[in-house]
Structure formats: C-alpha cells, structure tokens
Amino acid sequence: MNGTLRSQSPSRAHRDPLRRVGRGVLVAIGITLFTPAYADAPYRAKQLTIKEYAAVLVDDKTQMSCLSKLYGKESAWNWKANSGSHWGIPQGRSEYLRDATAEEQVRWGLKYIDNRYGSPCKAWEFFQRNNYH
C-alpha cells in the first residue's frame, strides 16, 4: 500500500467526488423539471394587506377594531395621505412618514399611540372627543 486514497478506501467512495456532485445536480434539476408548479401552492406566503399587517402587530381584535376606525378616519389607510404637515396612515407630523413605507408608518403609528395613549382604543376615544389624535 502506498498511502493513496484508493488504497485507504476499498469502497472507492472518494474515487471521483466531482462525478457524484454532478449526478446530484442532475437529479435536483430533474426533480425541479417534473414537479408541478402548483405543488407548493398551499405553503406560499400570502401577501398581507396593510390592515392585516397591523392586525398581526396589534394581536387583539378589540384594539384592532379601534385602530381600524381611527386610521379609517385619519387617512382611509392611505399610506400616501397628506393633510398639511401630517403624513401617511397615522397622519403624524413626522417628516419621516412622508417617505416611509406603509408598514413603517403603521409601526411608527403604533409606537406613537402606545407612548401617548397606551392603546388604540384609548386613542380612538380621544379622537372621538377631539377629532384628532
């Protein structure tokens, strides 16, 4: 025995690693080509609406109902809404909201509500009394 891989591996498992990799790639390509496009349809992620996204963050039906009414009155859930110096879905005064995505606006609005009112329902109650929040 001269110390080569062949002499150390009687099964010849290490004989031609590139050939084995090539076969694996071909098998993967074959599986992909013969798998119907709809096979993974039940597992595809659904694109959430902005209201659905907010509901996931709020995670409380009562609070989400209040938030929905509040943002419905403020911006009709329009992320491009503008009223003077107020921007986006939450109609906040921050210039950040002007260029923020809808998701960023919702997160910003929820932080604002939490810091100022404690909950979307308390913010909605304030809005009903004052016509702003």
Describe this structure in words.
The chain has two domains: 5-43, no CATH class; 50-130, no CATH class. It has a two-stranded antiparallel ribbon. The chain is globular and about 40 Å long. The protein contains seven helices and two strands, in the order H-H-H-H-E-E-H-H-H. The protein is mainly alpha-helical. Helix content is 56%, strand content 3%.
Key traits:
single chain, 133 residues, mainly alpha, 2 domains, two-stranded antiparallel sheet, 3% strand, globular
Low-confidence spans: none
Write down the Rg: 28 Å
Oligomer: single chain
H and E order: HHHHEEHHH
Q: Describe the biggest sheet?
A: 2 strands, antiparallel
Query: Fraction of residues in helices?
Result: 55-70%
| Spatial strand arrangement across the major sheet | 1-2
Return the average pLDDT rounded to an integer.
81
The geometry reads as globular
Distance between the termini: 85 Å
Number of helices: 7
Residue fraction in strands:
under 5%
Secondary-structure-derived class: mainly alpha
Number of domains: 2
